[in-house]
Specification:
CATH superfamily: Peptide deformylase
Largest sheet: 5 strands, antiparallel
Number of strands: 7
Distance between the termini: 33 Å
Structural class: alpha+beta
Order of helices and strands: HEEEEEEEHH
CATH topology: Peptide Deformylase
Strand order of the largest sheet: 1-2-3-6-7
Strand content: 25-35%
């Protein structure tokens, strides 16, 4: 299975690709997407994480993967060109982290429920209604496709504190 043999590196903020809006996946991109998806899942599971967007592995396509592992069983979802179709008026706050901001966590408020439209690997249009962790995860990954990180939902003070802490930890890791 050579498509998964070399683990994809996950970009760490403040990499410029993480702040760039991804372009829609087109029909001619599907061979690349089919080769990329298993490698993205391998990188996400190893990290470990529950979601990963293509820009996080330096690919500027509107592609994200999610797996909350309900009951410790894999339940992978591939979202091609996902879009939020509807959000609830109610909001929920939960702690979020990100594979591109390792070790950094903060409370983020988002709509409590969402409906997301997307295409699957066969090109079929699908919709998913989500609440709780899945709603937050879908919104988080779609944000990545728009060049938005979870820290962008925080106050400037909190965001700067987290980014300084991340930079300090990254520097310390390089000197080890």
């Amino acid at each position: 299975m050579d498509s998964v043999e070399t683990l994809l590196p996950i970009l760490v903020a403040p990499h410029k690709t993480l702040k760039t809006k991804a372009r829609p996946v087109k029909t001619e991109d599907m061979d690349r997407v089919r080769a990329l998806v298993p490698r993205m899942f391998a990188a996400m599971y190893k990290a470990p994480g529950i979601g990963l967007a293509a820009p996080q592995v330096d690919v500027g396509l509107r592609l994200a993967i999610v797996d909350l592992m309900p009951g410790e069983k894999p339940s992978p979802i591939v979202l091609i060109n996902p879009e939020i179709l509807r959000v609830s008026e109610d909001w929920a706050t939960r702690e979020e982290g990100c594979l591109s901001l390792p070790g950094q966590y903060a409370d983020v408020s988002r709509p409590a429920m969402v409906r997301v439209g997307y295409s699957d690997m066969e090109g079929k249009r699908r919709e998913i209604d989500a609440e709780g962790l899945m709603a937050a995860c879908l919104q988080h990954e779609i944000d990545h496709l728009d060049g938005v990180l979870f820290v962008d939902h925080l106050s400037l003070l909190k965001r700067n504190m987290l980014m300084r802490k991340l930079a300090k930890e990254q520097r310390a890791a390089l000197t080890k």
